[in-house]
Amino acid sequence: MNRQKLTALTCHALACLLFPIATTLGFQAFTAIFGATQSRGVAIGLAVQLIFAAFVMTNALIAITKNLKAKIVLVSALVLANLLYLLPQHPLRALFFAGLSGGLSLLAIYAAMHYGSKAKSA
Questions:
Q1: What's the rounded Cα separation, in Å, for the pair 58 and 52?
Q2: What's the pLDDT at 44?
Q3: What's the chain's Rg over C-alpha atoms?
Q4: Dihedral angle computed from the Cα positions of residues 40, 43, 44 and 49, in that order, rounded to the nearest 10 degrees
Q5: Transmembrane residues, as ranges (predicted)?
């Protein structure tokens, strides 16, 4: 395995580790600002697990893909899937998870490209 792939896998694994931390911090901030949430519609605990599983699988695919356009299409599909799944009943959570998953994935792509190019030149 070459150094660029290892860098990409490391960056995307770090993004997968940051996802549950950001989810917990976001939920605590929402609760502190707006108070306790109302339970309705989709069982959000299972929904978060499904979103996290999709996030991990998509980031694994992004890490092994070489084409930048394909990576952007995968991130876009992940964001769109989050919005379609949560938007009807949980609009704030839909925006949060779509932004979080898209932002972390794009950050991992940028970091992998940045550190991968340094590894290539060294």
A1: 10
A2: 75
A3: 16
A4: -170
A5: 42-65, 72-88, 94-113
CA distances from 77 to 82, 83, 94, 117 (A): 9, 10, 14, 26
Q: What confidence score (pLDDT) does residue 38 get? A: 67
Span 11-20, pLDDT tens digits: 999 999 999 9
Number of domains composing the chain: 1
User: What DSSP assignment string belongs to the chain?
Assistant: --HHHHHHHHHHHHHHHHHHHHHHHHHHHHHHHH-SPPP-SS-HHHHHHHHHHHHHHHHHHHHH---HHHHHHHHHHHHHHHHHHHTTT-HHHHHHHHHHHHHHHHHHHHHHHHHHHHHHH-
